[in-house]
Amino acid sequence: MPKMSPVDQAFLFLETPERPMNVGALFVLAPPAGARKRFADHLVARMLECPVGPPFNYRVRPGPFRPLVALEEDDAVDARRHLRRHRLPRGGDVQTLFKRICEIHVQRLPRDEPLWQMHVFTGLPDGRVALYFKTHHGIIDGIGFIRFLTHIVSTSRARGKPRAIWEGMAAVPQAAPAVARASGATEWLQIADETRRTANDMLRLMWHQGLRNTGLGPGLAAPFVTTPDVLKTAPSPHRVLAHVSVPLQRAREVAHRTGAKINDVMLAALDTAMNRYLDERGTPPDRALVADVPVALDDHGGAGNRITILQVPLGHPESAPLERLQQIMGETQEMKHEVRALSGGALMLYSIVQHSLASTIESLHLGELPMLANLVVSNPAGLEKRVYFDGAAVELALPISVVAHHQVLNVTVTTYVDALHLTFIALREALPDLPKLARYTAEALEELDAESAPTQRARRAGRARVVAVRKRARRRVPAARKRG
Description:
Largest sheet: 7 strands, mixed
Radius of gyration: 23 Å
CATH topology of the domain at 6-171: Chloramphenicol Acetyltransferase
Distance between the termini: 63 Å
Strand content: 15-25%
Order of helices and strands: HEHEEEHEEHHEHHEEHHEEEEEEHHH
CATH architecture of the domain at 6-171: 2-Layer Sandwich
Shape: globular
Structural class: alpha/beta
CATH class of the domain at 6-171: Alpha Beta
């Protein structure tokens, strides 16, 4: 029987109609030369030759006691039952596709079937075909998803054997056999020792938070109490999706000049964009925004969730982009220090407790209580080389993530060839104009690049670009705000 982590159980237990815990992967494919006619039909026929493998052949079953559930393998899953075909209306483009995916993404997967669907879209310009694979976060995490995707695509245009995402772990080369597990009394002693360490590390984590809150020492930021109340809205099943790509080399250069990590640079760009966006709406934050940041723990080589999600305060509202970056670097270094010092069990338990509390606050309609975080930002790596699926060039490869309880915005950063792709998904009621925030993020990275330029000449050119960006921003301020 497949093992489930506490985080897996939490994703399944906490799901509601307004907060479906679905995750997805979107591929936009350009058909090979001369293959536009009935390309989608041939693609589907070849995919259906592939078997369904774990975790996509898992079925949910009642656990030893409620509300726990268990998973069991079903070797007779028929992929045809999970495949859907769609044709976009005439003149449809990627934005039309995004809107349709948002509608599908929030539909809960039936628990009496294996937890996945494949949606195939035609009607895009020049015969392009989109594949949207949807599954449940309770059976897979972002790193596991990327692992599967990496092995079902190819760096060659040549057609090999048919592949499909639903092959799952069967598509991934098997790792060396794990060390034999202890049994009997030894196993119970190991469990007792892990429980003791988890309890001690939870106390240590909270002690460090107390020291930080009183200014007496370092530690993680306390959840809820430090989060500004911006973009708050009631839970909703409505979603909006946006995407922007930025040059990977630009982010690398900023990181190199400042001693930062690329993740820090992208957090700073998002923070700058969010502050600009909120200021234009007339709701500037009164303190640093807070990001929920998923952190991968030791890799067990499977598909389940071995993660914790920790809160990272971003830059102070009045800070310049480079100042924000320095402040964020200090916070992420503190987070990494805590992750290295504490056990994975304690970190997972901490994440489950705080997100369960967020779910309880939302389910009891206690909207006056503070938010857990203002946005979620994750970076599950990506694809470093141009890839092909069944001979078709993959033009776009995007993750579609979860907007969990007490949250309104999720941003996933992935790499594809020489670009960083940022996929934004949000509650439509909170961010109906989400593409604007995506555009502001790209412009914020330009500002960081300009301000960190090393030479005087480059700095002058950079300042000119910053002035141009800010002039464009002022022109976009709504008329009501200008009059205010």
